[in-house]
């Protein structure tokens, strides 16, 4: 059996940056450390951070003293103000690409555009972007989800960083027929696009795809959807414990990819357990970019 690891599988820049920052603070903690919400959407990493003394909290009010780490998704500025007003310290690990989306949204509103975020309104990143703007912000993935009567003559659109480019293009092409002026900032993170493209390409070449990542991770779920859309059997797992030997019977080539919040150590564990399943067969592990077909 040949196991092919997709390009760009695993931690993205922003998640790695936030996780490294949290771990480095935990080495010599001067005060209790907290993250506002789980640092990343991966239960195993969150558990590891907790073992290092970094606790995830839901509300700023739950903390009397300490340092609060803001995760890569970012938060509305009023949350930072609230933390400081309570006399707590803030370490802001908001991904610079998310920060850029917040700034574009703010700028659009200041220039008189009706701001639309193409994304999921319950996603923490979208909540943070929305909170960075002083006027009303609409959030939708499709034109049907938008309250049409609220569309102004001038509309400015940005995207949730993990959105699929196709989804963004669809909304833009529908909006362009409805409004007089449309300004668009493509805030989709290229890492996401690259990871999605690599997963889709690999899914075309293999008999089975494995997607590793938290079930609460939007970008991991999206990878699963992309692979399934290619018509290949796809399993979503969080850890190596979920692997089943029978999945690999009569399978020649397996593709593996992982979400932006999946650490390397989990990917390695999965690859190693898969290799053990196939000890009687030759297992070849290749990286997609270096793979010859
Ligand atoms: Fe940042 Fe892109 Fe990751 S926006 S958090 S590098 S998916």
The CATH topology of the largest domain corresponds to Cobalt-precorrin-4 Transmethylase, domain 1
Mean pLDDT: 92
Q: Could you say which structural class the secondary elements and strand pairing correspond to?
A: alpha/beta
Order of helices and strands: EHEHEEHEHEHEEHEHEHEEHE
Largest sheet: 5 strands, parallel
Secondary structure tally: strands: 13
Helicity level: 25-40%
CATH architecture of the largest domain: 3-Layer(aba) Sandwich
Per DSSP, the total helix count is 9
Distance between the termini: 15 Å
Rounded to an integer, what's the Rg over CA atoms? 21 Å
Report the β-strand fraction as a percent range: 15-25%
Shape: flat
Function: Catalyzes the conversion of 1-hydroxy-2-methyl-2-(E)-butenyl 4-diphosphate (HMBPP) into a mixture of isopentenyl diphosphate (IPP) and dimethylallyl diphosphate (DMAPP). Acts in the terminal step of the DOXP/MEP pathway for isoprenoid precursor biosynthesis.
Binding site for [4Fe-4S] cluster: 12, 95, 189
Binding site for dimethylallyl diphosphate: 41, 73, 123, 217, 219, 261
Family: Belongs to the IspH family.
Describe it for me?
The protein has 293 residues and is α/β, with parallel strands linked by helices. It contains nine helices and 13 strands. It has helices at 13-27, 43-51, 77-85, 96-110, 124-130, 165-175, 190-205, 218-229, 264-277, and strands at 2-5, 33-36, 54-57, 67-70, 89-92, 114-118, 137-140, 154-159, 181-184, 208-212, 233-237, 253-258, 284-287. The strands form three sheets. A five-stranded parallel β-sheet has the order 11-10-12-1-13, with helices on both faces. Strands 3-2-4-5 form a four-stranded parallel β-sheet, with helices on both faces. Helix 4 packs parallel to helix 5. The structure holds FE3-S4 cluster (F3S). FE3-S4 cluster (F3S) binds next to helix 1, helix 4 and helix 7. Belongs to the IspH family. (2E)-4-hydroxy-3-methylbut-2-enyl diphosphate binds at residues 41, 73, 123, 161, 217, 219, 261. Catalyzes the conversion of 1-hydroxy-2-methyl-2-(E)-butenyl 4-diphosphate (HMBPP) into a mixture of isopentenyl diphosphate (IPP) and dimethylallyl diphosphate (DMAPP). Acts in the terminal step of the DOXP/MEP pathway for isoprenoid precursor biosynthesis. [4Fe-4S] cluster binds at residues 12, 95, 189.
């Amino acid at each position: 059996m040949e196991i092919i690891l997709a390009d760009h599988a695993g931690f993205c820049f922003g998640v790695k940056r936030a996780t490294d920052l949290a771990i480095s603070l935990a080495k010599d903690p001067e005060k209790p450390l907290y993250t506002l919400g789980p640092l990343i959407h991966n239960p195993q990493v969150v558990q590891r951070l907790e073992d290092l003394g970094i606790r995830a909290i839901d509300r700023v009010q739950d903390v009397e003293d300490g340092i609060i780490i803001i995760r890569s998704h970012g938060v509305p500025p009023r949350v930072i103000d609230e933390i400081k007003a309570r006399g707590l310290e803030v370490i802001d690990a908001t991904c610079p690409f998310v920060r850029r989306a917040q700034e574009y949204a703010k700028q659009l509103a200041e220039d008189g555009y009706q701001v639309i975020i193409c994304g999921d309104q319950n996603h923490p990143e979208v909540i943070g972007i929305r909170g960075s703007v002083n006027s009303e912000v609409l959030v939708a993935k499709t034109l049907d989800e938008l309250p049409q009567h609220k569309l102004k003559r001038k509309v400015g659109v940005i995207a949730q960083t993990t959105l699929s480019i196709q989804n963004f293009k669809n909304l833009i092409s529908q909006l362009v027929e409805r409004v007089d002026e449309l300004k668009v900032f493509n805030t989709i993170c290229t890492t996401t696009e690259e990871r999605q493209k690599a997963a889709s390409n690999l899914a075309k070449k293999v008999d089975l795809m494995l997607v590793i990542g938290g079930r609460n991770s939007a970008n991991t779920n999206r990878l699963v959807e992309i692979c399934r859309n290619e018509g290949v059997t796809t399993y979503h797992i969080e850890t190596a414990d979920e692997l089943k030997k029978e999945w690999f019977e009569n399978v020649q080539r397996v593709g593996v990819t992982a979400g932006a919040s999946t650490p390397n150590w989990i990917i390695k564990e999965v690859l190693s357990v898969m290799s053990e399943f196939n000890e009687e067969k030759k297992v070849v592990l290749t990286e997609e970019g270096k793979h010859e077909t």
